[in-house]
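Supplementary Text 2. Reproducibility record for the structural model of the 213-residue chain.

All settings were left at their defaults, and a single model was retained for analysis rather than an ensemble. We include the record here because the model underlies the residue-level annotations in Supplementary Table 4.
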Amino acid sequence: MKPAIKAGAYGWSHAHWSDDSRAQSYYPQDLPQEWRLGYYSNDFDRVLVPAASWQEETLPDCEDWLHSVHPEFRFFVECRAGMLQHIALSELTVRLQDLQPQLAALVFPDEMPTAENRSFGALIDSLDVAVYTAGDVGARAARAIWTEAQPLPSDFALFDNDLTDLKPGRTFVDAFGSQLDDATQTATIIVHHASLQAVDLKRFCAMLEIMGY
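Retained model, structure tokens:
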């Protein structure tokens, strides 16, 4: 039996998802911005929270995020170099602890500079979640991120594609799914592309179901 594969987007607050001048606008015009996460979670079970979310003038309320989504929804949080220049480690820790009941993992797409390894290491130690990385996050046991360029064994993948053509998506899923081991119950694909439309991500999710994932 194949494991489940859940797909989600890199963030949910995309300008072109709420632009009524576009035929494929996703969010209704009258939907308040604070309701968008809940609307998104009606269609998708995963999201990768961009590191830039912590650079906003008003920091995210992770308790509100948690109350906005369904119980099976999972958050993955991107961590990048320089992120802790915009939010104190203690503040980030408290907010992610609020999110912890549905926080699946911290994701490090790049190798963290040595100067920040200790700080991120303290964050990892305070949260009982998985860690995915393309580099080395101190001595912590971290899992690889599966990509087309670096297909290392993993149950978490980043896919850079706008999904307007599902053929490359099927090829990606075939390759990613084939390396999942028998112990994997649920894997995740995060689609990260500046032009991604929610309607195409929904088609991709439907394709996963058709493929038996």
